[in-house]
Design goal:
By secondary structure, the protein is of the alpha/beta class. It has two domains: 120 residues, Glutathione S-transferase Yfyf (Class Pi), Chain A, domain 2 (Up-down Bundle), CATH 1.20.1050; 160 residues, Rossmann fold (3-Layer(aba) Sandwich). The protein is 47% helix and 9% strand. It has a four-stranded parallel β-sheet with strand order 2-1-3-4, sandwiched between helices. Strand 6, helix 11 and strand 7 form a beta-alpha-beta unit. Helix 3 crosses helix 4 and helix 10 crosses helix 11. The radius of gyration is 19 Å and the shape is globular.
Length: 305
Amino acid sequence: MEQIGLYLGCNIPLKAPDIEQSIRQIFPALGIQPVDLQGASCCPAWGTAPSFDLNTWCAISSRNLTIAEAREVDVMTGCNSCFGVLSEARHFLADPERRKAVNQSLAAIGREYRGTADVYHVAHVLHRKVGLDRIRGSRKYALDGLKIAVQTGCHTLWPSDVYTVKEDNPYYPTMLKELCEATGATVPHYSRLESCCGMGGMRSTDVEKSLALFREKLVSIKEETDADLIVTTCSSCFLQFDMSQPILRERGMIDFEPIPTFYYTQLLALVMGCDPAQVAAISQIDRSAVIAEIQSEQRLIKEVA
């Protein structure tokens, strides 16, 4: 079984541990064994070291990457920001002079960055390594008839020129669409597909602007797809969709009920028959009805004798 280093970051273990459980449960069943990167730290997030000193940023990021290098595995993260930060640091460290300066810092803790570990997002591993056929074959339930609106998120898309693993076209992302279609669901296009949801730095500095931007995207989803659920592969986007829809509803800024939102590995875990209490237990929006629909008796895939 292929091994890959699991880099959890901050959001998932602290705010959405059920997403972590879904990752840990589905990947071994799909032929990928996550390996814990013991001692890993923050990536570090964009608002910290990357905003004031490139070498400090690259030293912290590269220390995380050296943990994977020591295990002789690549890195897989479920957080778009972590993917972006680690990937860009790896890009910056291709400069010999910067790598020399960073390795001088790492030498103080007995480490050296070699650049042998690549960085993948969970979606990349599922799409490129596991493959759509294996995902289809892993299903216990089929989602035919359900409509899913997808939210890829920003930091797996841009800046695309520095990523080694990426979408074919960042302005028309298709990986998450195809992963959702592999469950049997329909995934209609909507005009604000690649737009930001307003999370991250905007949410922390100007909540009102964040909510206004989010509302534009949400209304586009509702009016153009009338989706039964929203699926994302960004932990920050998941938090925005889950916590901000009720706020918009309470303020009268939307006139429809919040749309249940899932991280993709949660959806796939449910489709594979995992216990919802373990893999999809934490949300502000009530997801019980759609979970019951996903794992309903009529959706069971009958085995062919």
